[in-house]
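[recover] target loaded
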């Protein structure tokens, strides 16, 4: 054969082999975006879903939540005592990313750090199921040894609960219960976990790069105990606040996952591309119930109920989100687990009507004005909300509806997400656009944050009746009686109206057709990509 023909044939074969190899090789890098930056990755001081999304992948809790199920994490097994109050976890052999062994003391330290008053953790209440935790967190006791968490040895951790709490093991998969190394916390102080090199990792991934306000790059952790199950080599997360920009990057092949802006989800839905899910979030307008002599109407229940009935949620969700979000007519997400089936099926409730009720709103307002000895025109209510295109439209829609129905002054205060969170935590608001995503699959996840004196109760709502229902449910062993109490608490808080429910959030999203094992959990993190892979 002619040498030139042989060379060309060989070259073509080589090119074909390279092309075939490239076509068959699956991607190993996942890329997507988040709308906001993560201020810190300190598990005990974090308080938002974006932070917990990353935390879930760089730390290994005692247990891990995957696809809605609780599976072993750092603990290869655990036992529950006959009375349901003592949990004994047996840790597997694990290493931190700096080579030091992961020990039970890292988990004891993390939980006690979470409830240490000096930490000032917003999620401290999450540990209140543990004996002595609330007393230590609120300063009633000062000795951490009184808290029911103890590393018996390097491989055994014992947690003692106040009462049997079947869902608590699953709750331990939440980011706030991720382990922490005392030596590094003490070394870095306030800067702990604010940069990639100021923390160590024991999860499926390590944080290789963190350009604040820009990019986070996660790399597979070769020392992870279950590294063989991790198929991705890296994950790149960009910060892009504009959803349209993120969508364009997805369409151009830059991103593998994207949320669809509400104004476009119908289009993609009609094309069969959009996937819809309730992500657990329930949004509300929260009132500040602190004493305010300049604005006494905020503490007036009839005024708050007037606002609640003035809202046409049907029109609001259609105008603000094109129908992506749906009206919230109650306090608790109906699809969380009840005694035996979904809570909303066992305990149906529509406290508000989708279209509101202008006549009822004016009736409540009339009662409030009589009690306050004021005219409607004298009332000004400021609404604190983060400055994004969708949320601005939400605020403007509420402004139009409430002013038209009640004749009061409704002002909008637009700030960044971080500013809104800080102002809300400090109690510096009249009303604020707020809400909650459940931390575990149970209605209690919504209710426990409104108990008097709980750190997350920034509204300063206090009701003996509500507290009685919730505290009773926390210790009631009978599932049906417990849910009866939870339902009683839900009706009580709606009648007291420290909040006005607005909407149940749905997400419309798309992902690369070759991407598998990428989940959008109902609870905890926004994304679960630990076991994701491309075909």
């Amino acid at each position: 054969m002619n040498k030139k023909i042989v060379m060309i044939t060989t070259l073509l074969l080589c090119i074909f082999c390279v092309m075939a190899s490239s076509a068959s090789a699956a991607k190993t890098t996942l890329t997507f975006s988040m709308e906001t930056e993560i201020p810190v990755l300190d598990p005990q001081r974090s308080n938002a879903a974006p932070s917990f999304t990353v935390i879930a992948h760089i730390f290994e809790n005692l247990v891990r939540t995957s696809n809605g199920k609780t599976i072993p994490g750092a603990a290869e097994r655990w036992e529950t005592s006959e009375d349901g109050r003592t949990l004994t976890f047996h840790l597997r052999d694990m290493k931190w990313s700096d080579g030091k062994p992961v020990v039970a003391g890292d988990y004891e330290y993390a939980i006690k750090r979470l409830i240490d008053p000096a930490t000032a953790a917003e999620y401290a209440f999450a540990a209140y199921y543990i004996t002595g935790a609330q007393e230590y967190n609120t300063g009633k006791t000062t000795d951490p040894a009184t808290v029911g968490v103890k590393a018996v040895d390097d491989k055994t951790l014992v947690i003692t609960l106040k009462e049997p709490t079947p869902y608590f093991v699953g709750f331990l998969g939440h980011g706030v219960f991720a382990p922490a190394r005392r030596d590094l916390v003490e070394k870095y102080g306030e800067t702990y976990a604010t940069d990639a090199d100021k923390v160590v990792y024991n999860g499926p991934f390590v944080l290789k790069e963190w350009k604040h306000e820009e990019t986070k790059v996660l790399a597979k952790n070769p020392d992870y105990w279950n590294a063989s199950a991790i198929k991705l080599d890296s994950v790149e997360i960009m910060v892009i606040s504009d959803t349209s920009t993120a969508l364009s990057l997805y369409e151009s092949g830059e991103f593998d996952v994207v949320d669809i802006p509400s104004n476009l989800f119908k289009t993609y839905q009609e094309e069969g591309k959009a996937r819809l899910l309730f992500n657990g979030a329930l949004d509300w307008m929260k009132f500040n119930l602190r004493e305010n002599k300049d604005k006494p109407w905020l503490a007036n229940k009839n005024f708050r109920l007037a606002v609640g009935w003035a809202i046409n949620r049907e029109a609001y969700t259609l105008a603000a989100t094109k129908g992506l979000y749906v009206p919230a007519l109650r306090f608790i997400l109906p699809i969380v687990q009840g005694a035996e089936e979904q809570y909303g099926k066992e305990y149906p409730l529509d406290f508000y009507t989708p279209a509101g009720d202008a006549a009822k709103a004016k009736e409540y307002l009339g009662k409030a004005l009589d009690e306050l000895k004021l005219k409607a025109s004298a009332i000004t209510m400021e609404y604190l909300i983060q400055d994004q295109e969708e949320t601005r439209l939400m605020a403007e829609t509420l402004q139009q509806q409430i002013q038209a129905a009640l004749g009061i002054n409704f002002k909008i205060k637009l700030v960044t997400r971080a500013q809104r969170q800080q102002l809300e935590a400090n109690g510096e608001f009249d009303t604020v656009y707020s809400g909650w995503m459940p931390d575990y699959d149970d209605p209690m996840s919504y209710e426990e944050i409104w108990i008097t004196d709980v750190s997350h109760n920034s509204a300063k709502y206090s009701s003996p009746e509500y507290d009685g229902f919730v505290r009773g449910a926390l210790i009631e062993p009978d599932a049906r009686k417990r849910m009866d109490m939870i339902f009683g608490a839900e009706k009580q808080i709606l009648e007291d109206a420290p909040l006005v429910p607005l909407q149940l959030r749905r997400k419309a999203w798309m992902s690369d057709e070759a991407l598998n094992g990428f989940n959008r959990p109902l609870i905890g993190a926004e994304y679960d990509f630990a076991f994701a892979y491309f075909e």
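[recover] notes: The CA atoms of residues 135 and 141 lie 6 Å apart.
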